[in-house]
Design goal:
- Helix content is 43%, strand content 12%.
- It has 16 helices and seven strands.
- Strands 1, 2, 3, 4, 5, 6 and 7 form a seven-stranded mixed beta sheet that branches.
- Helix 8 packs across helix 9 and helix 10 packs across helix 12.
- The radius of gyration is 26 Å and the shape is globular.
- One of its GO terms (molecular function) is 4 iron, 4 sulfur cluster binding.
């Protein structure tokens, strides 16, 4: 059986917990950022509408910076102010509004869940974190906890990247913070700490602390409202614990939350010794040939052919220029040939490889793929009849292209 965590890693003193809650909430009331979803959640009297507003913001904020999300969130809530309105939208509309925000499956799952609430749950959001997570697609443990605590007042904790960083520094947790065992302990701590009378505010305060003060690099320890509770700061100020641990300190080895013996405390890093993460897996490299087919429309404007991607997988349902994955090490002459063969299906006529004009390469980094697009262009004369048996396709002007559900990568290509 794994060794139990020593008491010094836990929050067990009721007086300390109460003091930490009070200090953190007082700081949040004074220093919190003015964000549109907070304003809406604070002023909307209907709990289900609050929950929808929080839900949309939390899904958008996954893997995306606050500054990027604000404009998308405001446009979304203006277009679909209620869950019922979203349920009636088309996936194409959702993808168009989401375009550029990345991780496109988030928008798709959000709409699927909205439709489920309307069709199967009588339009009523589940109110407990456990039910939110179980019943709504795309709602994980963190999102469920955020919705339940902020919108419905359930005294349940949340653990996201910011909370992980804060808790690991507060309690000197140096084991791999992405491991399931450590994550479970952090959830236990979050649930023990959450303020029972203001759970939503407390959870937002903890996340706000990680986002604005207890940041990954160069944290503002002097401004931290809970610095007197921070063991990492204490260790930075007073050095390593005594060689002989007291009854609440870790024993020698075997602690599931301490840093591994091979990674000792680095005094130059101070509190940023924590949290520690496993080495990040490098994204795989991929190359794709893509061709911008051009024609003159009936009014003389330049038009481009775009085609829709499959409904599952990377960038599901988005529109792109006709593209083809390339085998590694393929020579440029061979690239032209395979792309020309691929384009023949779209143009309905043979395409000469020599007629493809190489424009250059575009690099786009997805979370797990280092993608290089080898970009060609091909002007077409006369009309092109699109085969309805193929994937959906259409001709668009540049203005229509930017209004369509296209990825940031395709905008780079154009």
């Amino acid at each position: 059986a794994p060794a139990p965590p020593p008491a010094r890693h836990l929050f067990s003193d009721p007086a300390e917990i109460e003091a930490l809650r009070g200090n953190l909430l007082a700081w949040y009331d004074k220093c919190k950022r003015d964000l549109p979803w907070r304003t809406l959640a604070a002023t909307e009297p209907d709990a289900d509408r609050r929950a929808y507003a929080v839900w949309v913001s939390e899904i958008m904020l996954q893997q995306t910076q606050v500054a990027t999300v604000i404009d998308y969130y405001n446009r979304w809530m203006q277009k679909w102010p209620t869950l019922q309105a979203l349920a009636q939208a088309s996936l194409e509309e959702v993808n168009e509004l989401w375009a550029g925000l990345g991780y496109y499956s988030r928008g798709k799952r959000l709409q699927e869940a909205a439709r489920k609430v309307v069709s199967e749950l009588d339009g009523r959001m589940p109110r407990m974190a456990e039910d939110l997570q179980k019943l709504l697609p795309g709602v994980g443990r963190y999102t469920a906890g955020a919705i339940a605590s902020i919108s419905y007042g359930q005294a349940t904790g949340v653990v996201d990247g910011n909370v992980i960083r804060v808790l690991c520094r507060l309690r000197c947790i140096g084991a791999d913070s992405s491991s399931p065992a450590v994550i479970d302990r952090l959830w236990d701590m979050a649930n023990a700490l959450v303020d029972r009378s203001r759970p939503g505010d407390f959870n937002q305060a903890l996340m706000e602390l990680g986002a604005t003060v207890c940041v990954p690099k160069a944290p503002l320890c002097g401004e931290c409202p809970v610095k007197q509770h921070c063991q990492a700061r204490r260790r930075k100020l007073f050095g390593k614990p005594a060689p002989v641990p007291d009854v609440e300190d870790c024993g020698v080895g075997g602690c599931p939350l301490c840093p591994p013996a091979t990674e000792p405390w680095d005094s130059s890093l101070g509190v940023t010794n924590f949290p520690r993460k496993a080495a990040k897996k490098q994204p795989r490299a991929a190359r794709t040939a893509t061709c911008v087919l051009e024609r003159r429309g009936c009014h003389g404007a330049l038009e481009y052919l775009i085609v829709q991607r499959p409904s599952s997988g990377l960038l599901a349902g988005l529109w792109e220029f006709p593209s083809l994955p390339l085998a590694q090490g393929l020579q440029e002459e061979k690239q032209r040939e395979v792309l020309a063969d691929h384009l023949q299906a779209w143009t309905g006529r043979p395409v000469a490889a020599g007629g493809l004009r190489l424009i250059g390469e575009v690099v786009h980094i997805f979370s797990h793929i280092h993608q290089t697009y080898v970009v060609y262009s091909l002007p077409l004369d006369g009309d092109v009849i699109l085969d309805p048996a193929l994937s959906p396709s259409r001709w668009v002007t540049e203005e229509e292209f930017h209004a369509s559900a296209v990825s940031t990568a395709m905008k780079k290509v154009l």
